[in-house]
Amino acid sequence: MSGPNTNHDPVPVAALDPEAIEQAVQDALDACAGATDLAGLKSIRHSHQGDKSPLALANREIGGLPPGEKAEAGKRVGQARGRVAQAFKARQAELEAERDERILVEETLDLTVGTPHHRLGARHPISLVTERIEDIFVGMGWEIAEGPEIESEWLTFDALNIGKDHPARGEQDTFFVEPQDGGVILRTHTSPVQIRTMLERTPPIYVLCPGKVFRTDDLDATHTPVFHQFEGLVVDEGITMAHLRGALDTFVQGLFGEGIITRLRPNYFPFTEPSAEIDCRCWVCQGEDARCRTCGGTGWIELGGSGMVNRRVLASAGVDPDRYTGFAFGLGIERSLMLRHGVADMHDIIEGDVRFSSAFGMEI
Ligand code: DAH
C-alpha cells in the first residue's frame, strides 16, 4: 500500500473542520454572552471576528480547497461567521439598552431637591426717595450741594441766627464731638449747607442739599437718632415767597401726584423771616374724608419748615441782603417715605432688612 500522495490527495484542512468551526462559533457565543458591558464586548470582539480569529483563518483556507469543496466549505464558514456577527450585534444592542437604561436612572435630575437660594439685594427706599426728590429739583435746573456730617457749631447754629440760648443747642438734641466745648458737633439739620453754599458760591444760587442728620433722640416708631433731610436754598435778585410756593408745589406734585397743592402756615425759625410751616393736601382723601388715616381727617399733611432767608443769615454768609433775597426750606426724608408709602414704624426703615427694601422694587 502506498501512502497518501501528499501532493495531489486532498488533505483535510484542520481550520475547516466542521467541529473546529462549531467550536469557534461556540467560543464566540460564550464570550459574547459573558461580556458584561460594552467595553468588555469590544475587547473580545477582535479575537472572534478579527483578521486572526479562527473563523477568519478558516475563511482564508477556502481558497486552497479543490473546486468541488469550496462551495460547501464557503457556506459553512459563511454561516458560522454570520452567527458570530449576529451574536455580537445582538449582545451589543442588549448592552447598549442596559447602558441607556442605567444612564436614565443615574443621571435623573431630582427636581424636588431645594437649591441654595441667594436673595437678591435691593436699594434702600431712603436712597430711592432721595434720588426721586433730587430729580424733581434737578428738573427745575437746581444743583445738588452737600456738606459734612461732622460740622462746626458756628455753621450749624450761629451763622443761622440760632442764639446760644436756643433749645436746639442744648445737650438734649445735639451730639457733641469731644471735647464738648471744641465747637464740633454732628449736624442736627442740613441747614449749615446753606451757609457753606453761600460762602462758596455767588448768587444766583439754586441748590438742593440732601443728607444725614443726627439728634439725641431714642429710637421708637416715629423717631430715630440718625435720619435724613433735604434742604432747599435759592438766593437771587427779586426772589419772593411766591417763588417758594411755586417750587414747593412743583415738588409735591412730582412726589405725591398731579393736582396736590401746598399751604403755608405762619411759624418761627431763627434763620428765616418770615417763616412758614409747609403743609400739603392729603393725596389720599383730598380733604374729603373726616376719618382719613393718612391725614387724620385734617385734609392736610405737615411736611416741614420754610421761609425767606433771614437778612442776618445772608449777611453772615457774605451775601448782600440789600441786593439779594432768598428762600429756604427743610424737609425730612423718612417722613416723606413714611407718608408716601404708609410705613408705620421707623424700625422698618432703619433695620436694613432686605425684605423691607425689596418691597420697593429695584428702581435705578
Ligand atoms: N432746619 C430745620 C429743622 O431741622 C428745618 C428748616 C426749617 C429748614 C425752615 C429751613 C427752613 O431751611 O427755612 O428743623
What is Rg?
48 Å
Proportion of residues in helical segments: 40-55%
Highest-level CATH class of the largest domain? Alpha Beta
Find the count of extended strands (DSSP E, 2+ residues). 9
CATH overall fold name of the largest domain: BirA Bifunctional Protein, domain 2
Describe the secondary-structure layout.
Layout: H1 18-34, H2 38-49, H3 54-62, H4 67-106, H5 125-138, E1 143-144, E2 150-152, H6 153-156, E3 184-186, H7 192-200, E4 205-214, E5 226-236, H8 241-256, E6 262-269, E7 272-281, E8 300-309, H9 311-316, E9 325-332, H10 333-341, H11 346-350, H12 354-358
Parallel strand pairs: 1-4
Antiparallel strand pairs: 2-3, 4-5, 5-9, 6-7, 7-8, 8-9
Helix pairs in contact: 1-2, 1-4, 2-4, 3-4, 5-8, 5-10
The protein binds 3,4-dihydroxyphenylalanine (DAH).
Describe this structure in words.
The protein is of the alpha+beta class and 364 residues long. It folds into 2 domains: 14-106, no CATH class; 125-358, Bira Bifunctional Protein, Domain 2 (BirA Bifunctional Protein, domain 2, 2-Layer Sandwich), CATH 3.30.930.10. It has 12 helices and 9 strands. It has helices at residues 18-34, 38-49, 54-62, 67-106, 125-138, 153-156, 192-200, 241-256, 311-316, 333-341, 346-350, 354-358, and strands at 143-144, 150-152, 184-186, 205-214, 226-236, 262-269, 272-281, 300-309, 325-332. The chain has a 7-stranded mixed beta sheet, with helices on both faces. Strands 2-3 form a two-stranded antiparallel ribbon. Strand 6 and strand 7 (272-281) form a beta hairpin. Helix 1 packs parallel to helix 4 (67-106) and helix 5 (125-138) crosses helix 10. The longest helix has 40 residues, at 67-106. It is rod-shaped, with a radius of gyration of 48 Å. The chain starts with 17 loop residues before the first helix and ends in a 6-residue tail after the last helix. 3,4-dihydroxyphenylalanine is lined by residues 189, 191, 231, 269, 272, 304-307, 328-330.
